[in-house]
Amino acid sequence: MRRVTQRITRFGDTADGWRPGGSPANLEAADYIEREMRRLGMRKVAQLPVPIDRWVFRGASVTVAGGGPRFEASSWGGVPGTPAGGITAEVIDVGAGQAADYEGIDATGKIVLVDWAFGDHWVNRHGHQATLEGALAVIFYTGRTAEGAYYNKRDDGLLSFDGTYDDDWVPFVFVTRNAANDLIARIAAGTTRVRLRSDVELTRAAEGGVGYNVLGAVPGTDRADEFIIFTGHHDAWFRGAADDATAIAAMLGTVKAIKESGFKPRRTLLFLASTNEEYGYTDAYYEWLIGAWYAVTHQRPDWGRKAILSLDFELLGTGDPGERLLIRTHGELLAQAVEKLEADPARTPYGTLSQNVIWANADHFTLAAAGIPSIYFNTVGTEYLTHNYHTNFDLIENVDFDYLRMNVEVVNDIWVEHDRSTLPILDFVARATEAEARIDYHPEPEVGLAELPGVDQPLVSALQEAVARFRSAAERLDARLARGKVAHQRDVGDAMMRAERMILRRLVALDVFDQYVFPHEQVQRDATRLQLALDALEAGDPGLANETYVRRTGLTDAGRLFAYEAYASELARHDHDFDRLQWGAQAHLAPYVDLWKEYHSISAKVAAGLTAPTAYAEEIASIRAKLAHLYRELNRRLA
User: What does the UniProt keyword field contain (predicted)?
Assistant: First the structure.
């Protein structure tokens, strides 16, 4: 596995690495993976083209005019570059780069320096705001001290992610904390001019932009028509050792072990080295996970009917200090996976962690949403995540290959039991327990579905009764399986898998923060807060209505900090009719409620000392209309 990781991390479009999906270095990596699969004797090995907005990065810098220092910089996936000669202009410090930070400042024709703190607002909003302010470009950094950062706590670290960016907004780069503090000091001392250069090539999918999934198989025996899928991605920022070269090494290492041991899997094992997990499209929000999403929805839609399990590898082998082996999965798979995870503490020297979560930041989300039972594995704790993740320090020197071997051994114990079992290993009782808890969801203290006047309570009762019947059936199934061999096992197994696929396709949803929920929960959350806001406005407490409830509805909390155009643009990208929704279309997205104008209007009136409900008649009417729409949608989802 060391050899594979070394080879993949050597592919780079720059001296610091970089192999974003479809770039020259990434295509070299894909070719290498294909050769390795063939060398191992895998079957049906192929590179499968994925249309993408191909983004190639060849370096960036910020140079202080007049003989000043030159600082290396990074860019983010989908962010446009500068003209060949760069952009030369005065650089000004605009703090956090939110709308209020531009008050009294003319950014027209200037480059703005922005302190980005990871949170509910991504860099795209700051970039859009800078564009609206007339700036020419943005220089980002992460906190003047390490304490001010979540990611990238190294003072000499560069950072990259997907930008969720539009290519008609201004270019931006990221610089190290050391570089940022130098620029801040120069700006404080007087006018400072810099030349910002970012060498980026963007080729839209419609113009021929393409990346390649690499797929290979180990044929099964008596259940060869059923699949177990292994996934890891071959694109990366910088060297991308743990993210995600070790995943490719783990997959190929698994195949090598199968071949050398003579193990004969019952099911066909599919190994997908996916492209463009990090970034795949500009002018979109759901622009990561593109290779796996395209594979399961376009290239191999039969996986949703034939796969009994998928295992997604990411960030493996990060090791000491305290990088626990983590699994994220859904209730039906959790108990068996945890049993194997914790079976031998010698193989998990830094501890373990398990979560009933379907993780939207990894390929396993799109596979699970397509109806494939899925487990996600990584070894991320605080040290790697805050110091190396997505930085120029994700290097092979920071990989613990002994620990990586232990990771793979644990994973193998999990999938081999699934492969050997005639019947699917699925805990439907756990799903019933989760469903009961999610129907009993209380977004605010003492306010659940029963307390919302716009909810059709007979629908809730019918749903609770359906879950009770489901629990009873699941318990009877468990009891029958516990008694021993089952007649017509293939038919029983097929019925179990049909039920599981339906559950995943219908219940795997995301909230506005990309967290796993049931489809009704985000709508219920928003309806609850708007109902309480309405009640508070009508009771003469507009401050409570606005700051406790309106602000916390949908994306209002972060969106209120930027211009309305930036906020509305963000909401539009989540709309069901948006033409670049990709895997967001699998996620049962709730309506993204637009409350920017209501929030700012109420804020202004509160500041003026107005409290009477009559002063808020317009806001009350608007909120009531939006609440009615949410209630209709909530009832539809509960039905």
Answer: Hydrolase
Asked if residue 120 has pLDDT above 80, the reply is no
**Residue 499 resides in a domain:** no
Do residues 448 and 370 share a domain? no
Q: In one letter, which amino acid is 573?
A: R
Whether residue 178 is found in the same domain as residue 274: no
Q: Where are the beta strands (DSSP E) in 17-103?
A: 43-51, 54-64, 70-73, 87-93
Whether 160 and 247 share a structural domain? no
CA distance 141 to 503: 43
Q: Per the structure block, which two tokens stand in for 277?
A: 């997990």
Average pLDDT over residues 578-591: 98
Token digits of residue 214? 């690499």
- The three-class DSSP label of residue 308 is strand
| CATH number of the CATH domain containing 69 | 3.50.30.30
What letter does residue 445 receive in the DSSP assignment?
A: T
Could you give the residue ranges of the DSSP H alpha helices within 164-232?
177-189
* Same domain, residue pair 551 and 587: yes
Q: What is the pLDDT of residue 149?
A: 86
Considering the domain boundaries, does residue 495 fall inside one? no
Q: Please name the helix (run of DSSP H) or strand (run of DSSP E) that holds residue 606, with its range, or none.
A: helix 596-607
The packing angle between helices 596-607 and 564-572, to 10°, is 150
Nearest to 350 by CA among 382, 328, 376: 382
Average pLDDT, the chain: 97
- Residue whose pair of structure tokens reads 């190290």 in the numeric block: 176
pLDDT tens profile 409-421: 999 999 999 999 9
**Polymer length of the chain:** 639
Instruction: Residue 138: give the domain boundaries.
Output: 57-199
Degrees, nearest 5: CA angle 140-146-152: 55
Residue 391, strand partner residues: 159
Q: Quick one: pLDDT at residue 383?
A: 87
d(CA 346, CA 336): 19
Q: How far is CA 73 from CA 80, 160, 174, 195, 608, in A?
A: 14, 10, 5, 12, 46
Residue 326's nearest CA partner among 366, 286, 353, 294 is 353
Alpha-carbon span 375 to 358, nearest angstrom: 8
Cα distance between residue 358 and residue 378, in whole Å: 13
Residues 6+ apart with CB under 8 A from 112: 91, 92, 93, 94, 97, 130, 133, 135, 137, 138, 139
Let me know the angle formed at the C-alpha of 432 by 426 and 436, rounded to the nearest 5 degrees. Answer: 155
Q: Is residue 7 in a domain? A: yes
Q: Whole-model pTM above 0.85?
A: yes
